[in-house]
Amino acid sequence: MSLSMSRPATPNRLRHPARFNSLELPVSRSQSRARPRRTVEFGVYNHPTSTDGPTSDGTKAVAPETTPEKDGIRDERGEEASENALVWHIYTDEAQKADSSMIEGWSRSIDVLLVFTGLFSAVLTTFVIQAYALMLPNPTETTNVLLAQLAGQSNTTHATLVSSTPQSSPRQIHWVNGLWFSALACSLSTALISMLAKQWLQAYLPNVSGSPRHRARQRQARYMHLEAWHVPGIINALPLLLHLALLLFFAGLVVLLWSVDLAITLATWVIVTFAYTSYLASIVLPLFYTDCPYQHPITDQLRMWIFPSSSNSGPPPISTYCRRGQEPAKVIYDARICNATFEDAVDATALAWLFSKSTDHEVVSTALQAIAGLPRDFSALRILRDAGALSLIEQGFMCCFHKDTTVDLQWHLVDPGRAELYCRAWMKLTRGTDEQWPFDLVEPLWMLQDLQKHPDAAAVASCAVALSSFNSHQSQWELLVYLARCSAGEIQLAQTTQCCILDSISECFVRWEMPLAVIEDTANRAVPVLLNMLHLTEDLPNSEIRSAVALVLYIVTSGGVIDLGLYMSEDRRRGEYCELMIEALSAIVETPGRFGVHDTPLLDIVGAELARLATPIVAQSERFPQRLRTIARSSLSILYADGRIAQGIVADSILANVLHLLFPPVYLSESQQSIFVTTLVETLETSSHPDITNWAVRLLEVLLSGCSLAVSQSFVEGNGISAVVRAARAGAVDSRRLQIDSLRTMCAYIASTTKQYNATTTPRSALDSQFDILLQSDFWDTLNSIVTSRRWWLFEVSGHWLPAIVELCRLRPQAKVWPQVLKTFKDFADRNVGEEGYSETLSHLDIIRKILAEDGQMLAASPGSP
């Protein structure tokens, strides 16, 4: 695969230039951020014998000296965005101040509007009453007109005077009334909406209890919905409605005076035109001149509508939170951007609001540093990237250093704690994309990487270098060295730092484009370190380190064929932990030398970890496909035969599940079968756990059925006869099933040895010694007591036990055990007359009698017989 290794340049003009007192960052980038000629050496690290290395809570890690603190509240490493993190306390304080100022400003503005609306409506009503009267027919006026007409007939001069008086036409009267009634409607509507807005503002500030993050989420959700429903725009538009009412009033006044007196009309028109020209200028000029003092509430709203790209310095609107879209940078595996949850969107917009609106340097720093504590599967990183967090983080990181431009032209580290947080936040925002560390901040990053007194900060810096240097294996090897030194107890790293290193290694392996030899060499170095990490965290089953190690082991052993976007969630990693570990550990068992696993302790770790996986496989067999079960059985068989899974090494319950999973055993060569049988016999002799005994006996039955001479010899030489007999005796108290399995196992062994004896290629001397041991053992007494003490299924006796006993009787009829065995089984048959298998049982007993009778005649005919 081919991946782009550079991201779009950081803009010269940053969105928030006043947030940090620093120079603007140049935009030059390069392909790799790894330090030239830097070498990494793997030392000899002792195998850990205790869990003094990684810890689940990171309490042994060295905390930075400049950890943000306020009112006694200090965030632990990795908890910068937790439920009670400092950033939510700051957010609550800042939001309370901002909301109080915003609500108070709006309330005062609405109060002024209500007062002005009341006065204006009262004045306007007076004019409306007079204008409306002009529209109604007036009887007195009609009489006067008629009198004037009569008088005109007799007095021409008087008629001329009456007709020359200026009068408003009916159309003008209608226009005046229309304009003034519209103005009155606008004025009263402003009053109505203003009263509603006062109620909205009152409902915006409820009392919310709970944790700091809960209160912050509740406030941010209200703020988001306030903007989503355009409440600020409505409140800011209220003056416009009143100004429109005033304009309509003036328009009606001009229309009314137009036909009455032109001079008064022109004077009024000039005054109104000048006033509204100034009004429009006070709104328009601030849109183009940001320093213009003619600020108006509607100006900001118009700027957002007309110039959304330049005015939107905060988070995107709520309608875009879950919208599918493309990142500015190329996304490699970040599947989270399309499925942002509402909770994550609220957290992201809260942080974006904090670092976008605040002018306090410490507040902005805390908000940006809190990004470092966001969970791995945080689904709303796009909101933070769109709000300009990446540029601010780079500026904040630069502020943690000082470049001496007078003498040595060197960078000097000022605040390692904050530098680490900015570095982690940068990785959080860019992981899974093609973003790269700014080239002009590489030297400070290298300085942080060399910090000896702060291993966590140095390790995080190494992660940033590795994620920006996929073509340099040395940077990835350095991450392995940190884990190796941590597991050996040389340094102490917090759990958050270890998880960061492991996640970085995962991404490096997935996105590497290195020669196969380099990848194999790295895998050879990585697997031993990862196994030691598993060993150190074996008592911490819920640790995120274990799930991260499982993912890295799978990637390393499988060649990096995985979609990391599917494993960003910790729940997903833990849910597939068993599957990943089975694949990875089985690959190591198959070719341990390829992965640098040569010594016994590492193989013991593999055995112990793989044995733990037997329990979920047995308990939830339907969850695991047949292929995985087969892989696990094959690997466990090898490890168990090698003695790496035995009593004392793993718990009895785990060992019982391992033996359960191994039944029936997978295909094994003759030599492997011999070793396996020897190990099973050792387990039987040393364990008294009923489940271990049950499954060991069942496995022996399968392995001894039709086995070779080498396998039967391993069974006898390992004292297997005594072990199985002891299990049969234990079954007399604990389990009837165990007795049956034990007798079946012994009969399977007898059948196999007799078959080998009859084969012409088998040396009979070895089998003779086995027969001697068998006939002199306690098996026959145990057999007689078991058959006598309980009622057995007759077909079990005739189908499994007697056929093998008959064959042994043919080979050794002179043994002293046969008369008692014959009597025991004859009595048993007499107690089960007519049952299924009764006739077969009598047939086998008759054969034994004939064999013994013939042997007696031969003894009688032999010289020296009594």
Automatic annotation (TrEMBL):
Keywords: Membrane, Transmembrane, Transmembrane helix. It comes from the Eukaryota. The chain crosses the membrane at residues 112-135, 178-197, 240-260, 266-289. Residues 88-259 form the DUF6535 domain. Residues 1-80 are annotated as: Disordered. Gene3D superfamilies: Leucine-rich Repeat Variant. Residues 67-80 have a biased composition (Basic and acidic residues). The keyword Transmembrane helix applies. Residues 47-58 have a biased composition (Polar residues). This is DUF6535 domain-containing protein. It comes from Mycena belliarum.
